[in-house]
Structures are given as structure tokens and as C-alpha cells.
Amino acid sequence: MKKFLNYFALAVIVFLVYFGITTYPKLNLISGFSAKSSASGHFLDNRPLQVIEQGDNDIPLVKLATNAINEAGKFATSSVYGIMERKAIHREGLGATLINDDFDTSKPYEVPKRHKNKIDLPFPYGDNEPKDTLFSNIDYKKLNGAVANSFDKKGEKSKRTRALLVVYKDKIIAEKYDTNFNKNSRLLGWSMTKSITGTLFGILQKQGKIDINKPAVITEWKNDNRAKITVNDLLHMNSGLEWEEKYDKICDATKMLFNAEDMPRVQLEKPAAFAPNTHWNYSSGTTNLLSGIIRNQFKTHQEYLDFWYSALLDKIGMHSAVIETDMAGNFVGSSYGWATTRDWAKLGLLYLHKGNWNGEQLFDESWAKYVATPTNTSNGRYGAQFWLNAGGYFPDVPREMYYASGYQGQMVAIFPSKDLVIVHLGLSEKFDFNGFLSTIVKSIK
């Protein structure tokens, strides 16, 4: 019996050591993801916690979290097995922020000044409902069939589409939402937010406030081999900086999103692993560093907060949009952009019209070509904060397509020669974009 107890005790010790090494560190990220997701979904889109848990948080391991929402305090908490509790607070205008124990919630904070003047025009240039338009060159049976087939039937959980929108010649020709969602629902774009961040550099360049081909002005880099990295290199994800982005493990990206106080500094502090423009490497840290570079263009934090909305989001009527901030007040330009489906479409339409929004040129026409031109060593997959189909990643889809893309199947696809923008928002990495997009394109004769 004594021998058995010794073996049992040894087994328990081995298990605890294994758990401590392999699983315990993940609990912090799991509860962090769950708290942030719960706070954002509830306070930005009024989703009940049950809907969030069955949708947004229905991810392996994340499902282990137990969540609670405090309406009066405007925060959400999550923990796993009763340990590693994390808290995310909601602040009007800034969205939800995952905080640590040192964060002072009583400290005053600045919020973006919004300009939401009602415009008496139909979508996309105004606030009125889109006008019904029938096009003789569209096979509506094929179009509507492709849209309907992109949603799960009752009891299924594979396609997990939440919203679809097809805009042709500035007119909505198809629009559909899943249960619990509608045209007013704010949906997280995840890495589609990178395309918003990148667009701001096009605007800054047109305004003569930045030259993307010059080295990034970062004091910490001036005396080492990172001094040659340009903003152009960063926009292309081709800076050569060290970074790991794999969402199925603890990596640079997950530690940044769910632990870092000042997200731009995470990539800023990484060493160079390669010379600039020689090694493409997708990095959310790079985009948050770009957000920090935008912040440094302004004398005050308030000007930085206002710029994202006054120069772009409110300018093109993306009034539902909210870009959430980290604890240091930086916009999380890599991942935390929310907007309605129709407002996400407006970002695509801005590029479809080469920076012209109802007569006003926000960025030079050449910028649209720039973001859609393959960067060195990406094999035709990436431009400047936009993904490309230049290399035929989607074999049955036109090679000209470029798109904003995000985790779990978020997409704003732009087809310049087709005068077409397609938006998909969902919860599955396995959605058949090749089949869906090709069918939509073929429905337009």
C-alpha cells in the first residue's frame, strides 16, 4: 500500500509539473481572450453573454473560461477553473480594454471626437436606405443561391457566416444576416483593422505629413541595424524584425494582444532577424508599431485619437466604427476594429474608387495600386496591409482581387474591374471563399 501511495504521489507531481509547464501559462491568455471578447461583444454590440459564449468564445480552450458581466461597472471578468481571472473594461468611445492589476481605472482619459453629421443621401454616401436597383446583367438566382448557401442550416455549425453583403456599382445587390445579427450589428474585423491602419498612411502621405520611403523615426533604432527600416518596409510586413504569429500557441502575437500594456513597443523592442525587404513575415506587432508611428505624428494624444475618425472613418461614413485601445492609449490597429457590415463595405468602396469618396480625394489614386502590388518575397500573397490574390491563392477567383482579411473568415474583397465589393463576416477559418467568391463574380455577366 505504501508503495502504491508513493507511485500515486509521484504521478500527481508529474501531472502538476506537466500542467504547470504546458497549460497553466495558457490560462492567462484564455481568460484574457474571453474577458476582452465578452466586454467588447456586450458593450459594443449589446450581445447577451450567452450569444457571446456560443459564438465569439466558442473556440477550443477559450470555451473553458467562466465569464461574468458587470453592467453597472461596465466590465467583464473571466477565469479558468476559478484561477487566472482577467478583467476587461468598457469606456465609451474607446471600446473594451483588457487591463492588469496595476491599471488605474479612476484616471481620466481622452476619447475621440466624432463627427456624425447626417447626410441625406442613400448608401454608401449617406445615411438613408439604399435604393432598390435591378441590373439586367446579373443572374440573381445564382447570386442569391451563393449567398444563401454560405449560411448554416438549422442545427449546422460549419460555415458559421454571420453577415454577407455584395455591392455592385455602389448598389447593394445582396445582403443577409444570421440569427441574432442585422444591418446595425457591430462586428469585429480582427486583422481587417490592419487595412484601416495602412490607409491612414496613404492619407498622411497625401497630406504631405510623411514619406513612407524614409526610415521610420524610432529613437531606439538609430544606433543599430534597424535604423534602415522604412515605413514602406513595415507596411509591407517586410522589415526583417523578429516576430512569431501562431494563434494555436503562446507566441509574440498572443502575448501582445492579451498581456501587453503598450502594444507598439512589443515589436519595437524586437531585434532584426533579416535585412529589410528580404524576408516577408506577417506580424500584428508590426501594424501596432505603425499605430505608434501615427501617434508620433501628432503633438497631443487627443489629435492622434481624433485623426483616425476625422481623416477616414467618419469621413467615409463609417460612423458605427470603433477602434479599441490598449492600456497606454494606442489604437490596436492590428486587430480591434468594429463596424457594421455596411460600414466595412465602405472601406472597400473607398479603394474601389481609388481614394475618392463622393468627390473628395482622401489618398492619391496611386495608393490603391501600391497596396495591391505584391511585396517582395510574399509570393503574390501580400501588398501593403492588404492581402492579394495575385499568386492565385484562390484559384477560381480573378487575380486582380485584393482584400482586407481577419481571423475566422472576415473579409472585404475588392474587384476593381468588376466594380464589385464583397463583405463576409463569420466565425470559421474553413469557409469556402474560393467557391463563394467565384460564384458571385460569375453571377455578373
Describe this structure in words.
The protein is an alpha+beta fold. Helix content is 33%, strand content 16%. It is built from 13 helices and 15 strands. The chain has helices at residues 2-22, 24-45, 49-54, 140-148, 193-206, 231-235, 252-259, 263-268, 284-295, 301-313, 341-352, 365-371, 433-442; strands at residues 65-70, 75-80, 83-91, 95-99, 161-168, 171-177, 187-188, 322-323, 337-339, 356-357, 360-361, 387-388, 402-406, 410-415, 420-426. Strands 6-5-15-14-13-12 form a six-stranded antiparallel sheet, sandwiched between helices. Strand 10 (356-357) and strand 11 form a beta hairpin. Helix 2 (24-45) packs across helix 7, helix 4 (140-148) runs antiparallel to helix 13 (433-442) and helix 5 runs parallel beside helix 9. The chain is globular, with a radius of gyration of 23 Å. 47% of the residues are buried. Mean pLDDT is 94; it is low at 12-21.
Write the layout of secondary structure elements.
Elements lengths: L1 H21 L1 H22 L3 H6 L10 E6 L4 E6 L2 E9 L3 E5 L40 H9 L12 E8 L2 E7 L9 E2 L4 H14 L24 H5 L16 H8 L3 H6 L15 H12 L5 H13 L8 E2 L13 E3 L1 H12 L3 E2 L2 E2 L3 H7 L15 E2 L13 E5 L3 E6 L4 E7 L6 H10 L3
Antiparallel strand pairs: 1-2, 2-3, 3-4, 5-6, 5-15, 7-9, 8-9, 10-11, 12-13, 13-14, 14-15
Helix pairs in contact: 2-7, 4-13, 5-9
Give the structure's gist in a few sentences:
With 445 residues, the chain is α+β, with helices and mostly antiparallel strands. It has 13 helices and 15 strands. The strands form four sheets. It has a six-stranded antiparallel β-sheet with strand order 6-5-15-14-13-12, sandwiched between helices.
